[in-house]
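Example record

The entry below shows one chain as it appears in the dataset: sequence first, then structure tokens.
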Amino acid sequence: MNYKPQKKLLSFNNFKMQKSVKFGYLTAILHLAPYNLSGYNVCPKASQGCALACLNTAGRGQMNCVQKARINKTLYFLKDRQKFLEHLFKEITTYEKLAQSKNLKLAIRLNGTSDLPWERYKFKDNKNLMELFPNVPFYDYTKILNRFNQVLPKNYNLVFSRSESNENEIKELITTDNNIAVVFNKLPKKYLGRRVVTGDESDLRFLDPKKTIIGLLAKGRAKKDNSGFTVIN
């Protein structure tokens, strides 16, 4: 499948990203085509419930032009990774200056609708993006357990995402300091013995206290989920 190089990779249009401003952050997010919509699977641990409830079509994601752009970005990344990473590097450099001009800090989420191990992708001076921007916090949700067993860049925060099919991984992580994100129909005070904090006031997961459950209210198709992906209280 062919692709058209994209002029812009990151965006600020996500409503939840815009909430970050009141916390002093300008947040940029990268949206790829999730699961296997591009013909390549960029969400290797996606469950059936996760795929069905994906927020890929939320907001502007419903537009065909947005979907085509996300497929193009995904193919761009897969077919010319070096150029793609250099492109991201230039954008982050520009946005870091933009954030400073607004008296804000820049934060980056690279897996808006994907689950890729960005810590592995080294290109400039044999460094990954987090290492090249040590003063910029990066953060992501992931369902890939072994990422938590590796030494990550200090400015890269990961939150494990619960699904209806990763109970064993949850049992392993609940004994650590790592946070776990869970989708609920309504937020409880506690879940799995941990305090639940809302993850909907902002997307700044690196500001959350450790050993907590990040509670996310079901949105879109997740409201009608019957796979077990959404926890019903």
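Notes for this example: The mean pLDDT is 90. Residues 10-161 form one domain.
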